[in-house]
Amino acid sequence: MVKLFANLVLGTALSGAIWASASACGTADAHDKPDAMLNRSREMAAKYFNIEVAKAEGYQQLFECTTHDEHGTMGVHFINPGRAGDGRLVLGEPDVLTYEPEPDGSMQLVGMEYIVFEKDWKQKGVPEFLGRTLQRKTTVGVHPVDPYYELHVWHWRHNPAGMFADWNPYVGCANDQS
């Protein structure tokens, strides 16, 4: 009985230590924790699994599949110019959708981005959204663009670097035909 109790205490302590360590390293993030706003964001954007729906709503391919030799891939970006240029961050209106090219030529929705161009941001300070401070960027991968703030959200592909990281090593460009 004492041995069973000791094993339970040790197991609980180890579980707590592993969880704390994972949290500190950034690997235990929003993928593993329930969040009503993130759930709502994912639900509202699920219609874009069908890329034809995205195109009908004004999304256009921005660049070829964006990849980085060390960090992973972002995928193929489809931007909605009207949304991206409106100076707002709206939960149900992602500005950019990211897709992974599939062997059959189709596209698999893997993530999305909320962005606002610096010139369009009328509020003070750096934008915050979904409990995160957006990152200021001047490139998409290797492509220079006007300064903007962005937040990646990997709703449909787990990312060991974190749900809000720029690059995802679990996304690939091997089947890109653009």
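Second entry:
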Amino acid sequence: MSDTRVAVVVPVYGNEDTLPELVRRLAAALDGRRWRLRVVVDASPDASLVVARRLAAADPRIAVTALDSNVGQHRALARGLADEPGAAAWVCLDADLQDPPEAVPALVDRLAEGDVGAVFAGRRGMYESRGRTLTGRLHRAALARLTGLPADAGAFVVMGPAARSAVIAMGGPSIVAAIGAAGVTVASVPVERHRRPSGRSAWTSTARVRQSAATLVWAATAGRGLAAAAQVPTGPGRVGTASQRCTSVSE
């Protein structure tokens, strides 16, 4: 079993119903490991902050960052990563239980092999409507062409120090694009996503289009310049071309 110190960062917006179950399942999945959970409440309009603080009061491994204004999923994740410096591996995980916490150990163990700087949970399954699934795949395919990332890469990812530094230093609209722009070598492990057990996605169709456009433009232009200017530290196996940065996806 890996002895890697793990920090899990979860952005929260409208997740008061799923947070307790997320914590329960995450604690079971990481039983026997050293871990912390950073809950970033992104100015959520429901009782998510109250629930998060109650969970933190009951478990010293849980900490809460409360944002006064809504900054969106990816910038909330970047803030949470910055607030958790004392780890060797950082996990970004959604709070709505579409990303199964039970997959975290396998991703952490893959990172611990030492040949990659980040490991994505490769998206599998019909967890959204057909329209949203199709547009999501098109976005990821376009981002893959720009960055060399796996075409199934989403925001459920485990990263090492180089990838974390890239996300914090570059401050782009997407943590996924930042990892790609930094040139950190990555791997992808297939993970079945699930439909949301309660509530609706905070990502409206308009918000999804805007986020996709901003991410792709940033990856094509600003991201590369920022990666060089920030002098992001290299991770294991960093190389110079996009086609070489991604290891094969293991089924």
